[in-house]
């Protein structure tokens, strides 16, 4: 996972961003190897990816309908 920033980060900020990106990449790879699905943010909403991810029809409550927070 690589995020590009339009703003120039400080050296410390870049180190922090690189560390976070590495951690997320490792976590997603671990989930993939274990056969677990992952929830990521894509096109303005959460998306479940992976072979065992529940299908939309298995989860009738949408994200938009469950905004009780």
Walk me through this protein's architecture.
It is a single chain. This protein has one helix at 11-34, and strands at 38-42, 45-49. With 69 residues, the chain is an alpha+beta fold. It has a domain at 11-49. A two-stranded antiparallel ribbon has the order 1-2.
Strand content: 5-15%
Question: Which spans have pLDDT < 50 for at least 5 consecutive residues?
Answer: none
Distance between the termini: 28 Å
Order of helices and strands: HEE
Question: What are the main properties of this structure?
Answer:
single chain, 69 residues, alpha+beta, two-stranded antiparallel ribbon, 2 strands, 35% helix
Summarize the structure.
This protein has 69 residues and is of the alpha+beta class. It has one helix spanning 11-34; strands spanning 38-42, 45-49. It is built from one helix and two strands, in the order H-E-E.
Question: Topology, please?
Answer:
Blueprint: H1 11-34, E1 38-42, E2 45-49
Antiparallel strand pairs: 1-2
